Amino acid sequence: xxxxxxxxxxxxxxxxxxxxxxxxxxxxxxxxxxxxxxxxxxxxxxxxxxxxxxxxxxxxxxxxxxxxxxxxxxxxxxxxxxxxxxxxxxxxxxxxxxxxxxxxxxxxxxxxxxxxxxxxxxxxxxxxxxxxxxxxxxxxxxxxxxxxxxxxxxxxxxxxxxxxxxxxxxxxxxxxxxxxxxxxxxxxxxxxx
Length: 193
What we know:
Layout: H1 11-23, H2 29-43, H3 49-61, H4 66-104, H5 106-111, H6 113-144, H7 147-161, H8 167-192
């Protein structure tokens, strides 16, 4: 994914958008990716839906936190290296600050009934947001009407849900299918010329 020339956006806007998203979302990387899509695809139009889908796949399959990986990809795509740094800083500052404060009084938080109930309630909201991500990304795959993509999506779901296959193997298998498909398309385009 190359950064498009002439797509330089204000670094401050990128930083504060990521800071806002990171500060007010709970539930991990997939939740943050949902809000990143709403901001960068739907509102700012800095990235198109297919690019966001590709970035989500790369962020998930790369080592590390999904939110930080996605921030790296989005930031670089939007404004190069400086954008990447701005997006990552905006993403990591809120959790570091919150965890630092919580660690000061961890024992009080850990045993507090109201905190436990609040976190349990937040789990339901996080599940709804993750379901939204699944439906949105799944709809994009369905729009392609590609038998290979549909087969991979159904096979990945069955492997995880029915057979308990480790997600690492599913990601590797899906990546292998993607590489084979890309090589097939490249070879096919070469023979048509």
